[in-house]
Amino acid sequence: ELKVEQNPLFLSMQEGKNxxxxxxxxxxxxxxxxxRQDPGKSLESLFVLLSNGAVKQEGRLMxxxxxxxxLSTLHITAAVHDLSATYFCAGGGSNYKLTFGKGTxxxxxx
Amino acid sequence: xGGITQSPKYLFRKEGQNVTLSCEQNxxxxxxxxxRQDPGQGLRLIxxxxxxxxxxxxxxxxxxxxxxxxxxSFPLTVTSAQKNPTAFYLCAxxxxxxxxxxxxxxxxxxxxx
Lengths: 110, 113
Prior knowledge:
By secondary structure, chain A is mainly β.
């Protein structure tokens, strides 16, 4: 059974700083997703990573996937307040199910 | 605009009552899902359906039931057998097949009084 572990679970950053959220998973995963959730809202898809070495960037966020290490990272560059949210990673195998991590609550302070 | 519509957005229920949460999608997606989210927790899969008239239990199906009579609709019933139903419920869909990205509805928040 796939298990997905994120760390840290809570992250308080200053504006302008860089940081990385880590997502480890326990068994082979064909795909890795990153989602963003604002308080009381639904999940918004950020990145879809489908192969080893995949790297995707959108604005101040960059996600990567290392299937050999069973690790995905979400790197935040020069954080701004608008990035404050909860970030989830999710992994899936050859079936339709996705397993989600517990999420990382990111707070960016002025 | 294509998307997933969940209703109601907020629902209050007395203990012992069954309630049904609606989920409709016009994305022409084959697969649909129901997830439950509790405060400070990730999402846990309740049920999923790959095609019409077929569905499978997820990790926490006890106390819930679903139907998939139409491709665009996947309602979830929270029965009185669900011991702790207060939660945020999210419906999602995907094109289908391994590697399909999930698209989520806005969610339904159920509170049991």
